[in-house]
Hints:
- The protein is α/β, with parallel strands linked by helices.
- The protein folds into three domains: 6-72; 86-477, 3-Layer(aba) Sandwich (Rossmann fold); 492-584, 2-Layer Sandwich (GMP Synthetase, Chain A, domain 3), CATH 3.30.300.
- It is 32% helix and 21% strand.
- The strands form six sheets. It has a nine-stranded mixed β-sheet with strand order 2-1-10-9-11-12-13-14-15, with helices on both faces. A four-stranded parallel β-sheet has the order 4-3-5-6, sandwiched between helices. It has a four-stranded antiparallel β-sheet with strand order 16-17-19-20.
- A hairpin with a 6-residue loop joins β13 (388-392) and β14.
- α1 packs antiparallel against α2.
- 45% of the residues are buried.
Amino acid sequence: MLMSSGCGGKFLQEELVKGIDKEMEAEWKQSGRTSGDLQYNPNILVIAVKMNTIMKCTSFCSRSTNLIKRLYHMSKYTVEIPNVSIGQYILNGFNKRDDKIALVEGITDKKTTFAELHEQIQHVTSNLSALGFGPGHVACLCGFNAPEFAHVFCSVTLLGGALTIANPQLTAGELQTQVNETGTSVLFVTPDCVEKAKVVSQTSKQIRHVIVVGHHHELPTLEKLMRPRPHVTPVVVDPASHVALLPFSSGTTGLPKGVMLTHRNLVAELAALSHEHFLPFGDGDSSLAALPMVHIAGLVIGLLNPLSQGAAVVTLPRFQPDTFLASLEKYKTTFSLIAPPVVNFLATDPSVERYDLSHWRTPYSGAAPLGKDLTETVVRKLGLTGLRQGYGMSETSPATHTTPLDWWKYGSIGVPLPNTESKVVDIDTMATLNAHAHGEIWVRGPQVMKGYLNKPEATRETLMEDGWLRTGDIGYYDDDGHYFVVDRLKEIIKYKGYQIAPAYLESVLLQHPAVCDAAVVGKAHPVHGHLPTAYVVCNTSVTADDIAQFVNMQVAPYKRLRGGVNIVKELPRSPSGKILRKNLL
């Protein structure tokens, strides 16, 4: 029996810690890893259990307590990460699914089986290779959603190249900047972006080919690349070091930066998502992909995750309310990635009730945390068992946290995905915080980026030497290990030394019956720092003073909307649904 007091008890505690340290060291050496790779070893969970038992029996010295804290933030789930390219990993998911539907174009109802998709990808890979595309090359995909985005991604990565994805709303100048920074040599675009692509290809000398994903009378099309050609052998890559995907960070807190995601990053992400407690797809499951697939969440979670598990994906060019609802009903899809504006639409628009959405078991929201009231409204209205949430960023492939299938909480972004560590850090002292304490969320895991493209200083600011990534999000975790996001670190408003979370004031604004969307920013003030300033979208007639008074009566004096209230027609948002606060300043 363990002693809990006295010199003998303390000695025994220290000896136990030494023994556990040696056991950990042996595990690390045996696996060829360092202490920074602790989260990848499922055997460490056994050690965590041993230490947990000790904690229940005795009080620890500070050194052992710190060790317990670090282990506490590990995901309790693990998955194996195959040592293959991301393209091969996805193709492996097609096994034994030959006659099953893989892709459906939601507007035309055109269907592609897994056998057809596999063959088409092999042809595109061979024809793309014949154009001179190969290891180390970069292709850019810009446009509105199409089923053939799967062909482009798989073919580019099977040839050892990397794909950068670009928002179709970019100007020609903005697209050219991304093309130049990544060294893009092949530009894939949907018909809507052809004219923009022509301008870019004329000014960017490194672009050798522009290929249209869709119909076009003048330029080469992806359909031509699907013509039969002798198959080429996929390029052998080092999954841990070779870059497969180059999304650009959202730019909501700075200039856009290319994010280097390796094959291993993406394989680890898909393997984690497929875990039975998170986003598994079984027989009869399918995904409706309406959010932009040139955004990493739309690409990885909406398209690649279901395909890699042998599930069908119905694609829509973009989110349009009636088309989205009609497609959910027609195809009886069970999963769809959505964003907060879509959740708000589901909660407030009466047209939703005209559709049979009973098959839609998993609405999965990302981009920003959801309020409890909004979540409850949607759950009640649609008769759901829960509204799943996920959390992450381009730098993490993208997800690090997700609500487990059988363990969700209102407002929570979930728990760390398999193989992932997470902690909350004091923004001033960098000390690891306990449950319910607010600080910056840090994450570490195999899905964390290699770094920013050609931006070593930005990489050092975000990615620590021991593998921890600073998310820039303020949050906390509860006693059960569920995480909650409060706000963005760089968006915190500082008024007279007080720190004010915009998200809190936005939640109060949304309680006003006339307000249907809201954003709060800090307006610079020469003496007081920044004044909380609101921008709201209203659905009925109301004055700015009425709204300001409504909020100011409910918050602490220092949180009052001293910068005023502005009534606008709409708020600027990124394609993923995040409020572009910088556009309001």
